[in-house]
Design a protein that fits this description.
The protein is an all-alpha fold. Helix content is about 85%, strand content about 0%. The N terminus is likely disordered.
Length: about 475
Amino acid sequence: MKKIYGIKNSKASGPILLLGAQYITKIMGPLVALLVVRYLGSEDYGLYASAIAVTSFLSFLPDFGLQQSTLKLSVNSNVKISELIKLTVNTSIVYTLIAFILLYFWLNEFNYDNTVKLIAYIVGISFFRSSIMMVMTTLLQIKQKYSRIASWNLIINSMQWILTVVCIIMKVDIFQLVFWPQVFSFFITVILFIWEGRKIKLFSKFTSLKIKGTYKQLIGQSLEFGTAGSMQQMYHRSDAAILSAFRSPLEVGYFSVAVKITDLINFFPGVLFNQVLYPKFFKWSKDNREKYLIFYKMINKSMLILGILACSVLLLFTKELVYIVYGSNEVSSAIFLSIMLFGVPLRFVASSIGAILTTDNLIRKKIKIQSIIAIVNVGSNIIFVPYYGAIAAAILMVITDFLLLIGYLIFTNKYVTKSHFSKKLLYNLPLLIGLLILSIFIAELPFVYKILTGTLTTIIYIVILFFSFEKDEFTVIKSLFIKKR
């Protein structure tokens, strides 16, 4: 019988829609942030960025591994989904309150401006919104309702964007600019959560006698996953937090803009694994090891090529990107961005290799290497950032990403598989690196040469990616686009 291929109604349709929605969010977010930078100016934006640096550093706490823990228990446990989600809600509330307490102590321990403190407390509302959104997303992931995850994300974020633009049009002060979008997006999240919760009778009483044991499992696994996530957050966000404590708000603002631009790219593997692949990887790791390892190699090579592509193209336009944000030539921010971009391919591949450690019951090994790297990163930032500022933070960011990737490779090579990339990719690696180096020199040429180079480079990378796939990998890819019956 002939198989029908297509995206609509296929297994891949929901995940593709989710990826699209998440990327719309990440594209629109920086565009609105651009307006905020222009509206506030470099000095006020520096105060805003200092507050965001601290809240972003603590943003992992409301989840702290609960999403991954709940997904894993939903596969291995006989507990009802509604009761498992209730446990997740209760635990997340506790984690969120801890985040707020830590925020208070951090702001009062260091000599922050009162404006920064107040902004940080207002932004702290997002801890509760993120907590609720995490629970709702986890529920819909279990039910494989990816299109609804995409819809709810767009609704909530759109509300925040629209209100931010409205506040700018009304020329409100910095506190109202932060307050109203946070509050309204929080209430919309609560309403949507109640809507989804009622469908599975989430707000009824516990009925299972297995709840106590499941609660222990949930918290225990959450602490493992969360510790891994906190280590990752520590070396991804600690630099900005430390910078905000020791350097001027203006420098923090320049650094934060560069980070936001790279986050636009680094966001991709996070969505791919957390929102789409983790549920499948947990299942395949037990039921279909062959498919599991095929996907592992396929995603590794894809992440490497796409990461180098993103780095090569963006290196051409660092000055232009910063100019778009500020409306002026801010050389410092452009330099920080150029340095950070070299970490993009490293993060892409590290996300892929780290994912298999998470889903193959090697989370403790992952925590071990992340802990070592986090200590190295935080220690280095504490030593160098107070004296050398954001330039040191940017360099240490790339060094940390490289060390993490090496650590993941060592543990994966020892405990899972020694095959990480295909020979086809290794043959093309010198060409990939050569194109990356070429971008560095072309970046100093007129704009038209940059456009031509960026276009040609993109085409070459896509061709290399296509021809790097093996026969069995093409078979797996095709299976995702078979229409459901």
